[in-house]
Amino acid sequence: MNKTAIIDDNMVFRKVTQILLKNIGIREENILLFENGKEMFDFMESNSNSINVLPQMIFLDLNMPVMDGWDFLTQLQGYKKKTSYNPKIYILTSSVDQKDYQNVVNITTVEKYLIKPINEETITKIYKEYYPEIL
């Protein structure tokens, strides 16, 4: 089953996004919540022999403590070279800084740059595009 990760240091945002995902039919056990990029990267490392448990879709905040979204994207590049893991990444940020946007559009692993807050309609469009069988 396709899993989705939400990587964001804001617990309220993680929970609200989790509720939106459940509202469109994603089962709770297929939603993984991480407080920062390091938590997600540690999860990836500990499951590198069973890539099928890793999320195929990641909603990633850019500005977080410990390991921010930029560092996570850099670490992911190295991880992808060692494995066949290739998730769809959606930047979900409150940053409206044009430099952030320009930096993200140059990263081929990022599907879209989305400004918070996200809504059910946006999530539904994303899933219909990539995983229509889920909805």
Shape verdict: globular
Low-confidence runs: none
Strand order of the largest sheet: 2-1-3-4-5
Distance N to C terminus = 13 Å
- Average pLDDT score: 88
Our Rg estimate from Cα atoms comes to: 14 Å
Structural class, from secondary structure content?
Answer: alpha/beta
Q: In DSSP terms, counting alpha (H) and pi (I) runs of 4 or more, how many helices?
A: 5
Helix content: 40-55%
| Share of residues in strands | 15-25%
Got a strand count? Answer: 5
Order of helices and strands: EHEHEHEHEH
Major sheet summary line = 5 strands, parallel
Description:
With 135 residues, the protein is an alpha/beta fold. The protein is built from five helices and five strands, in the order βαβαβαβαβα. The protein has a five-stranded parallel beta sheet with strand order 2-1-3-4-5, sandwiched between helices. Strand 1 (4-7), helix 1 and strand 2 form a beta-alpha-beta unit. It is globular. The chain starts with a strand and ends in a 5-residue tail after the last helix.
